[in-house]
Write a structure and sequence with these properties.
With about 375 residues, the protein is an alpha/beta fold. It contains 16 helices and 13 strands. Strand 12 and strand 13 form a beta hairpin.
Length: about 375
């Protein structure tokens, strides 16, 4: 980010609320004027007099939560084109699509974009805040405030849903019945790792296909959920075409499922899916933290064989199978026997990530425990 600020006039940082965006950019750019558009008075000033707002900001400024006043992006374009000062403006936002739409229209070629998700396992696991088991991490999640203040994760995450998720949804679209929307969130949490079926979800809560599609889009906008697309290469003409659903933070999903401790998690039907979500999201974070544009997919041959995560690295494919069991089982490798011959993926680039700690090199794949995700070459 600092390197980009020596070359490009605008740095944009986007990510979920409470992921540490403001803390990070204020630390990296201490000499910039800090302006947060969550402040109602500042927001009104920016809406009513954008030129005056930016004049008062001075030569270098951080504008936090800029999605509240998207018209500012056009004014930033004019200023940066005129003054040509690298790193002049640092902007951030918690509603990705709203922010990105403005950037694509006004700031193309003038902005470097960074995504900041909550803490990664790699960041936490070697500190005093490290937890003992993967179940602990799944339940607690990775929002920084929980670790910083040693908060009760279930209570904080439920407050997060009420104060941020539901509020943001109401700001973007008109949700008349928050109870139905909360039910929708809980259904999404229970369908982690499953194919998205708008009609089926809608039928369960009594809303239309279009409403489900809109609500899912808003959750993606607010960095609550993301979807993993099926791999596009036609190795098998019967491949699945629907996307799969995941949460950016498993702690949030556990709060929605009312899972409070390891016993609850170990007895729940979604434990394997939550572990899969945990691993995939940690790999995603590692990619973003290395400034690698993720090209992640899953692959499913009409339900017969499935690869949980497929990383497209251009010249090679990296298939990854994810299993929550702490014991290595021969069935972990079954999908590789089918996928490798038709895709050209190599055993040395194929991985099983499981709930134990042993590392193995097998003739068909590499085996890594959940604590060694950083050993997957990205």
């Amino acid at each position: 980010m600092l390197q980009s600020a020596t070359q490009i006039p605008i740095i944009a940082v986007t990510g979920p609320r409470q992921s540490g965006k403001s803390t990070l950019i204020r630390y990296l750019f201490p000499n910039h004027t800090y302006l947060n558009l969550e402040d109602i008075q500042l927001r009104s000033f920016a809406l009513e007099d954008p030129k005056g707002f930016l004049f008062n900001a001075g030569k270098n400024a951080i504008i936090d939560e800029i999605q509240y006043v998207p018209d500012l992006l056009s004014y930033l374009q004019v200023i940066t084109d005129r003054e040509k000062i690298p790193g002049q403006f640092i902007i951030s936002g918690s509603q990705n699509l709203l922010l990105m739409d403005g950037i694509s229209q006004s700031l193309a070629g003038r902005v470097a974009i960074f995504n900041l998700l909550p803490f990664s396992l790699e960041e936490i696991h070697t500190t005093d805040d490290a937890l003992k088991t993967y179940e602990d991490y799944i339940l607690q999640g990775f929002y920084p405030r929980i670790y910083d203040l040693d908060l009760n994760p279930n209570q904080w995450l439920n407050d997060y849903i009420r104060t941020y998720v539901e509020r943001d949804v109401r700001q973007i679209i008109n949700v008349g019945d928050l109870n139905t929307f909360r039910q929708f969130l809980e259904i999404c949490a229970g369908r982690i790792g499953q194919l998205v079926n708008f009609s089926e979800i809608g039928n369960l809560i009594g809303v239309s296909y279009k409403t489900v599609s809109k609500w899912l889009s808003v959750l993606e906008t607010s960095f609550i959920i993301y979807t993993l697309r099926p791999y596009h290469q036609n190795f098998n003409k019967r491949i699945v075409k629907s996307s799969k659903l995941y949460f950016y933070d498993t702690g949030l999903a556990c709060a929605l499922l009312n899972l409070r401790n390891s016993d609850d998690l170990n007895q729940h039907f979604a434990k394997g899916a939550l572990f899969e979500n945990f691993v995939i999201t940690e790999i995603f974070k590692n990619q973003l933290n290395k400034n690698i544009r993720p090209k992640n997919y899953f692959w499913n041959a009409a339900g017969a064989y499935e690869i949980d995560l497929l990383i497209d690295q251009g010249p090679k494919l990296v298939p990854i199978e994810i299993k929550s069991s702490r014991t290595i089982n021969s069935q972990f490798f079954a999908a590789f026997t089918y996928f490798q011959p038709i895709s050209g993926a190599l055993p040395e680039n194929s991985y099983v990530i499981y709930g134990g700690s042993e590392k193995q090199t097998r003739s068909i794949a590499q085996v890594l425990g959940w604590e060694n995700l950083n050993e997957i070459p990205l």
